[in-house]
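thought: fold this chain, then report.
action: predict
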Amino acid sequence: MASQLPQIVFIGRPNVGKSTLFNRLIRSNRAITHDRPGVTRDRMEGIVRRKDAPAFGIVDTGGITLDGTMAVTEGPDGIRGFEKDILQQAESALESAVAIAFVVDGRDGLLPMDEYLAARVRRMNKPTLLVVNKIDGMEKEEELTAEFHTLGFPLIAVSAEHGVNIRLLEEFLADLIPATWEHEPEQEAALKLAMLGRPNAGKSSLVNAISGQERMIVSDVAGTTRDSVDVSFELNGDKYIFVDTAGVRRRTKITDAVERFSVNSSIKSSTKADVTLLVIDATEGASQQDKRLMDMLDERKTPFMVIINKSDLVPRDALKQLQKNIEEILAFCAHVPVLLTSALKSSGIKKILPLARRIHEECSVRIGTGQLNRAMEQVLLKHQPPVVKRVRAKFYYMTQAEMQPPTFVFFVSDAERIPETYARYLERSLRKIFGINHAPMRIRFRSTHKKRVQ
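observation:
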């Protein structure tokens, strides 16, 4: 995990290209980038991996806006109202950082806000590299970087957009790491959990409550979270990574380009996580968009649970009705658990991580062919397949084809004679016999005219 590596924090005023540099260095488009200032709000961690050299962590932060007294001042539209939160997130990252990458914009030149931030950086007394970004032509490097030397930091000129000097930047950053730092060996994989849901459902509040860290900016303003942000933490010896994502609204309501990037990133994160937590706001109930998200997760066989958050703000009878409504929506994927929580009151949240781990373990179940076929005989004896077009399908044998999720293949005389209702009966039976209570499951039928030779 990035937090167990030496970390270098990227700071700078809004729109100097920190997120583009971050993406270049980790070789992935993790952070949303846009010409509009203030797109990044929460901090984001990543890992810079180098051939034949130790990896190190980097942290992208939101744009910091300071005045001449080094106090927070009003920023551009994108971060207005979040300026103090962004500074707090950056300072939290800097507490455990080994060094600072101070990013400035070479096209804009040295601005007063850069100088105010530089004064604050000096007080932190950490190794600092000044990264002059947006120097697209290296023939202009000397001219465009001259005034930045007055800040007194070692300097490198780069172009994040065009990838100029990025590998050299890696080396400069690595040189900032103290020689005394002990590089830890690779750790066991953490359980990766994606938070998904509509804006303002309380995803960030839940991440903070469960992890015990004020890692995410929480606001009543819907759409505060924009990037998909990784939050690493450890609890009772187990490692976890929360991926807090932007709120997902109906596409017809999305007119903002940044929000469109955010939503695409959110849905993509759910496909890469071990388990997805779909968060619903109890005060608003289950919307058509929530139903679409459930259908999408079920169709993709994504391991997930539904969390009804803000349950403390709803009368008991209304809460029971909401839970019933959601269970009805989940009728065709009844294995999906539904939890009632309140991030504000910390109620119900202790059940989330053990349940997520159980779902992940169920996804990794591997059952021997002999066991499966004994189970199949038992299931068929209890309830034979129905007669379809005057013929009853014959079942020959079954096997497990895949894990993640468990996928079982039945070899039958004619797959077209297996109705959906009987397929659901087989799934329910397998779940009961093998204790696969909450993981998604795939059941497939393959036509064959030959019985397997034992």
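thought: worth noting. Residues 31-40, 217-227, 249-263 have pLDDT under 50 and may be disordered.
final: tokens above.
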